[in-house]
Amino acid sequence: MATPTNTQFAVAVHVLVYLASVGRNEQRSIGSEELAGSTAVNPVHVRRVLGPLRTAGLVHSKPGAKGGWEIGADPREIGLDRVWAVLQGDDPVLGLHGPSPRCAVGAGVQEILQGVEREVSAAVVDRLARRSIADLVTEAHLEAAVGPPR
Amino acid sequence: MATPTNTQFAVAVHVLVYLASVGRNEQRSIGSEELAGSTAVNPVHVRRVLGPLRTAGLVHSKPGAKGGWEIGADPREIGLDRVWAVLQGDDPVLGLHGPSPRCAVGAGVQEILQGVEREVSAAVVDRLARRSIADLVTEAHLEAAVGPPR
DNA sequence: AATAACTGTAATCACATTGGCGACGGTATG
DNA sequence: CATACCGTCGCCAATGTGATTACAGTTATT
After folding, report:
1. Does A2 sit within 8 Å of B88, measured CB to CB?
2. Does B69 map to a domain?
3. Quick check: is B76 in a domain?
4. Pairwise CA distance, residues A96 & A84, whole Å
5. How much is the ipTM here?
6. B67 closest-nt by C1' vs CA
7. What is the pLDDT along chain A (150 residues), one digit of tens a residue?
8. How far from chain centre, in Å, is Cα B74?
């Protein structure tokens, strides 16, 4: 692996689908532990991933007993691009940030590559925007309530 | 940085532009050391990056005194997608390879995400294919001989 | 009020990848 | 033969990810 396995995006999507499906069908908040069990990762990791999503308004959390997580927006309007933007918005897709070369050749090439990077990032976002959490719920054959969050 | 800075692609492109420009104008092989100096990285690193490119036929190398590297194909036909394929062809762009969840929800989501991954990878390759090493030489305002390799 | 069940966050650890660095052998030039 | 390269190995530091533990804060339940 050249790129260290970045589970955050996958975990986030999984959790959102879970919240949009199970959570809304059963009308309850869901704890980090249950989410972690479902995703096969650590509860703390789940909370770390969900933190930024909460800031972005995609989920809500309730502390205390019977607390937990609920989806914070209409699943039909949560495009995968939004999740991506929240979690990896700043990271370059091509992973270039090469050492800036001293020579004239390098300076020009670096500039051009940055332009390519922007193009590629835009293309990625475009593809991700084509699917929403609600789409995933449907495609994964999960029955779910649809509509704005409770 | 979520993604560790992966300089390999940037270094490879830089070196190819250098070979297509300086190397062919001056009609000589170029040593790893000179390439490393131009790219501000280690000579060993340059050789490690160029190894796969040689296997792919994009460059040639000559051992021994007066040895060094030459470009191995017409720069106009070396699209950035080829370089990408050689160096990062196997790595997922989205970095998902999340832990396979046990529950039914997860299995379905994982499958869908893999489909998205394929779409996104294709989009990235498509954008990269729009530019060739020869294009970069031109855009970087470097005078260079154009045509098939010597 | 006391307890239990959660979130929220910090600290630490193991692990993997990247890239710098040194060493040594192979090979072509002069 | 001496020199100047490539080619590859091994070791090292730095970095990022995720697991784990611990602890503080908040809320429902009894």
Report:
1. yes
2. yes
3. yes
4. 19
5. 0.83
6. D5
7. 445 567 899 999 999 999 999 888 889 999 999 999 988 899 999 999 999 999 999 999 999 999 999 999 999 999 999 999 999 877 888 877 666 666 666 678 888 998 999 999 999 999 999 999 999 999 987 666 666 776
8. 15
Side chain identity at A146, as an amino acid letter?
A: V
Backbone angles phi, psi at A142, to 5 degrees: -110, 130
- Domain housing B79: 7-89+131-139
What would the pLDDT profile of B95-110 be if each residue is shown by its tens digit?
A: 776 666 666 666 788 8
Rounded Cα distance, A35 and B121, in Å: 29
Give the best residue of A96, A118, A126 to mutate against chain B (max B CB count within 10 A).
A96
Q: Is residue A149 part of a domain?
A: no
Residue reference for tokens 């019977």: A66
CATH number assigned to the domain comprising residue B66: 1.10.10.10
The radius of gyration of chain A from alpha carbons, rounded to an integer in Å, stands at 18
Q: Is residue A55 part of a domain?
A: yes
Q: Number of structural domains, chain A?
A: 1
Q: Which of A92, A105, A116 sits opposite B142 (nearest CB)?
A: A105
